[in-house]
Each structure stands twice: as C-alpha cells, then as structure tokens.
Design brief:
Elements (H helix, E strand, L loop, with lengths): L13 H14 L3 H14 L5 H12 L2 H13 L5 H13 L3
Helix pairs in contact: 1-2
Length: about 100
C-alpha cells in the first residue's frame, strides 16, 4: 500500500482498537495493513445463504460415500473409535493378576 492512497479517518471502540492492535502484532503487520487485509478478505469471501448451507449439508449427510470415506480416512490416520477405547480400558482394569 502506498502513502499516496487516500486517507480515511475511523473511530473505533477502545476494545475493538485493542483487538486490532493485537491481531496486527501477532501477524507482523501494521494496524493499517491489518485493517486493509481484513476488509479485503471480507469483500472477497463468497456469501452463503442459510438455505444453500442447509441444502449442501443435507446432500453431504445423506451420501453414504461421505461417511464411508470419512470413516476410512480416520482409520488410516490411526483414529480409534471411542467405543474401542472404552473396551480396551475395561479389559485392562478387569484383568486378573
């Protein structure tokens, strides 16, 4: 961003200003650059209507391939279902010495 860009005065509540300052520090940007980045991101993000989100969720949740793929992926990553963990714990605690 160049110094020749138009200037814009902005009033912010103190708590919001503090949050912007902290976010700028954390991201290594100036306060101005942080605000510009966040504004640009908000304009670039596609808007999703609640109806579209509901329809997409329904399509995913009713697809048998979705759950099979999710389950297979979790198993490949070493995830153990909670029931299996509980069974192992019970087996360990009920073993006789």
């Amino acid at each position: 961003m160049a110094r020749e860009d138009p200037h814009f005065r902005l009033r912010l509540p103190a708590d919001l200003k503090a949050r912007v300052e902290e976010a700028a520090r954390a991201s290594g940007r100036s306060i101005n650059a942080e605000i510009v980045q966040r504004l640009e991101a908000s304009f670039g993000a596609p808007s999703v209507t609640p109806e579209a989100l509901t329809a997409a969720t329904h399509a995913i949740m009713t697809s048998p391939d979705f759950f099979k793929g999710l389950w297979d992926s979790l198993r490949q990553q070493g995830w153990i279902p909670p029931e299996a963990i509980l069974e192992k714990m019970v087996a360990k605690t009920t073993k006789k010495p």
